[in-house]
Write a structure and sequence with these properties.
alpha/beta; six-stranded mixed β-sheet
Length: about 325
């Protein structure tokens, strides 16, 4: 083979090699996690998209060490091996990170059904992939004024098992920072203890029934007709899980408050309305009189109904 032909062959092989290398680089760039822009994380949460997000900060040594593992996760979910279509992102905005109340960086969230779940485990690619594949659905339940007693049967001693419930206003940051951890707790207690959330902003009857703070989060375990409150000063998933299993035995127990009857609700509503319109010095006296007046009215109508039912029927004159 002449020198000219050798040069042509070598140039051809070099061209193919360069093209393949560029293709591999482009493929790696397409699989690489995308950096989120300002407020993009909040918009993604509201979407129906499933995604992973890695929270990092500049100068974080552990974040740099974890970067290759997270890239492997991104590559896996970009291939046909993965059963789910999951995007991977990186969040480096410090304000967004502060809002999450994260204790360590890097931290990984898996978001599905508008609900983030905090990953707590070994920071390696395969462990994260396995974790994502077994946490496909939202686990914790949402309870309201209408569904709480029906689903938990808390006041009757509960045949549905123990319930660990977080009461908080989800629109407040103090509550929203707890939600990823709460979903992780639900994942850990799955099939052992029911885990639920009550949005206090839309469940005023439960707030009144259990005398709960409206904005401050509180955690309660309901079991065998008893209610145990967890001290949220220690906001740690392991501590809350321990409390749910057997730590509640060291907490003060109270009988679960009965669900108010329609008559109770009526008298309370009347009392609340009178409180708003009456002077404070007269309010207490009249509020004491309201239940008595309602009881007397009830007795009056019951007696009247019985009297009417006992009257003899009228007969025609002369018969």
């Amino acid at each position: 083979m002449s020198a000219a032909r050798c040069c042509i062959v070598l140039c051809f092989l070099f061209t193919i090699f360069t093209h393949v290398a560029h293709m591999q680089e482009d493929e790696e760039e397409n699989h690489a996690p995308k950096y989120l822009t300002k407020d993009e994380y909040s918009r993604l949460i509201e979407s129906d998209q499933r995604f992973l997000v890695n929270f990092v900060s500049p100068g974080c040594v552990k974040c740099s060490e974890f970067a290759p593992e997270y890239e492997e996760v991104a590559k896996y979910f970009a291939t046909e091996k993965a059963d789910m279509d999951i995007e991977t992102y990186i969040e480096g905005d410090l304000l967004t990170i502060r809002k999450q109340g994260l204790r360590r960086l890097p931290s990984v969230y898996y978001v599905r059904d508008h609900t983030p779940i905090l990953y707590i485990g070994d920071m390696n690619a395969q462990a994260i992939i396995n974790w994502v594949e077994v946490t496909g659905k939202k686990i914790h339940l949402t309870l309201t004024d209408e569904t709480f007693e029906h689903l938990t049967q808390a006041a009757t001693g509960a045949t549905t098992g123990p319930w660990l419930v977080l009461f908080c206003d989800v629109s407040h940051q103090d509550c929203s920072t707890l939600l990823p951890m709460w979903e992780h707790i639900a994942y850990r207690l799955h099939s052992v203890i029911n885990v639920a959330l009550v949005d206090t902003a839309i469940s005023p009857r439960l707030v009144k029934r259990f005398k709960l703070p409206e904005s401050t989060p509180s955690v309660h375990l309901f079991q065998h007709g008893k209610r145990y409150e967890y001290n949220l000063h220690l906001r740690d998933d392991a501590a809350i899980v321990t409390f749910a299993y057997n730590g509640y035995k060291n907490a003060h127990a109270v009988d679960v408050e009965k669900e108010p009857t329609p008559f109770d609700t009526l008298t309370e509503n009347i009392a609340d309305q009178l409180k708003e319109v009456l002077p404070e010095e007269h309010g207490s006296k009249i509020l004491l009189a309201v239940p008595v007046a309602m009881l007397l009215l009830l007795v009056f109508f019951l007696c009247r109904g019985r009297a009417n039912s006992g009257l003899p029927g009228r007969t025609k004159k002369g018969v």
